[in-house]
Specification:
By secondary structure, the protein is mainly β. The chain has 1 helix and 6 strands; from the N terminus they run αββββββ. It has a 6-stranded antiparallel β-sheet with strand order 4-3-2-1-5-6, covered by helices on one side.
Length: 101
């Protein structure tokens, strides 16, 4: 499965209220693999004034060019990861290897 297809499926299941799993290489310390069993996409971060850097205040469930933003449903914490560092995703009970396009 490509990264693009995995993200497309994450967006689709966001609308159904279901979750997905994610395994990726961490780009910050501590480095190594990180695995989150239950995730859901979240909005992009908003600055202190409630606006995005481009001046719009509309919240979008989307990704920047490099990152996806998600919530760890087990802890309630907001997380992010670089798209290109994703190696596995889970939809339902099945884990899929992720490849770059």
């Amino acid at each position: 499965m490509t990264v693009t297809e995995a993200i497309r499926r994450m967006r689709l299941i966001r609308q159904t209220g279901k979750d997905f799993g994610l395994v990726f290489y961490a780009s910050t310390k501590p480095y190594g693999l990180r695995k989150y069993e239950r995730c859901r996409l979240r909005s992009r971060p908003i600055d202190a004034d409630g606006d995005k850097a481009d001046g719009s205040s509309q919240r979008k469930f989307a990704m920047t060019d490099r990152f996806i933003y998600f919530e760890d449903l087990d802890t309630g914490e907001s997380k992010q990861c670089r798209k290109r560092l994703i190696i596995k995703v889970r939809f339902g009970n099945n884990w899929h290897d992720v490849t770059l396009e």
